[in-house]
């Protein structure tokens, strides 16, 4: 879904009407198609203004009629207790991500287990995540209805290991990373189930989750959202994982 130009007559400016128009537009689109990204092309100097409504820059800048623009994207999906949205580059989002990924208990089963040590690494992470956004695919922030940040849910293409795949399209992976303060409350299951349902609704029929063989807690989440344990595989990430599929 896409929003075109947002404009008010000169005589109506300075009264907050453009903001009112944006709020009405995004509320209507969220209600019509929950979880589906809303796209727009913003004049570059207005990117922060659109950011007030949850839009984030989603691609390279470009010029239209000689005016610098940036593509922007907004996603919102609600559950009984949670809101799933885009990660932004505001200070509070960046501070949360650094705090989460600097913890060894969070990073223990992710990649090589290396923790973040420099806040600048968050910007590199957000750049990588921005490149994963494609339709309903992407990495979503998970927070409570009152705005307390909890973690991330990922829905993205998963790379084959070297020599695996045999020319087949990449599978779509679902995953979750949560702050230790959010563990044990069912948030990962609730958020992942919502994203899985969204993917099914929009025609993604095969979805996988992979875990480190020692990460039984994530395996339990995968099974609670309806994925079936297939066993160990080396088809992904050039390492041994436990595969869950459905």
From TrEMBL:
InterPro entries: Acyl_CoA_acyltransferase, GNAT_dom, N-acetyltransferase. It comes from the Bacteria. Residues 1-77, 82-246 form the N-acetyltransferase domain. PANTHER family: GNAT FAMILY, PUTATIVE (AFU_ORTHOLOGUE AFUA_3G00765)-RELATED-RELATED, N-ACETYLTRANSFERASE DOMAIN-CONTAINING PROTEIN. This is RimJ/RimL family protein N-acetyltransferase.
């Amino acid at each position: 879904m896409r929003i075109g130009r947002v404009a008010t007559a000169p005589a109506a400016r300075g009264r907050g009407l453009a903001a009112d128009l944006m709020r009405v537009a995004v509320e209507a689109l969220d209600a019509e198609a929950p979880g589906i990204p809303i796209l727009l092309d913003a004049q570059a100097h207005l990117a922060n203004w659109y950011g007030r409504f949850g839009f984030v820059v989603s691609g390279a800048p470009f010029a239209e009629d000689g005016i610098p623009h940036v593509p922007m994207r907004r996603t919102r999906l609600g559950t009984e207790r949670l809101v799933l949205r885009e990660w932004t580059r505001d200070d509070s989002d960046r501070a949360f991500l650094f705090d989460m990924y600097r913890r060894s208990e969070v990073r223990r089963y992710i990649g090589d287990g290396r923790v973040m040590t420099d806040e600048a690494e968050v910007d590199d992470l957000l750049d990588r995540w921005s490149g994963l956004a494609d339709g309903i695919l992407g990495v979503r922030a998970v927070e409570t209805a009152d705005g307390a940040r909890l973690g991330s849910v990922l829905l993205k293409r998963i790379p084959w290991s070297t020599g695996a795949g045999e020319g087949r399209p990449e599978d779509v992976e679902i995953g979750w990373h949560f702050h230790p303060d959010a563990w044990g409350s069912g948030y990962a299951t609730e958020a992942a189930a919502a994203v899985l349902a969204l993917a099914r609704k929009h025609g993604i029929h095969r979805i996988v989750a992979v875990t480190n063989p020692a990460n039984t807690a994530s395996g339990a989440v995968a099974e609670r959202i309806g994925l079936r344990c297939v066993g160990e595989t080396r088809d992904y990430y050039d390492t041994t994982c436990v595969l869950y599929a459905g």
